[in-house]
Design brief:
This protein has 96 residues and is an alpha+beta fold. Helices cover 19% and strands 33% of the residues.
Length: 96
Amino acid sequence: MSSLPVSPSPITLNHLRVGDAAIVTDLFQPAQSNLIQATDIIRRLKELGFIHGEKIKILHKGYFGGEPIAVRVGESTFALRNFEAALIGVSKTEVA
């Protein structure tokens, strides 16, 4: 596994710009939500491939409110809502 230059401070995926590459560092529990629903969302994100160490890239953001966010995870592309993207901690990298 090659070492990629990573930014020192983690941010959440919803703060990345189109074209930014990053590595998933963590998944966060939503602050105010139904615990069962929050667990389902976190589980779904993990099943889609948003796991620690996975490389991602922002491909596109919607024109109105920046939603949905098109994200490449491995060889797959997914559309996320802003609140889902805010649950994914990332560290920016120089290359995807």
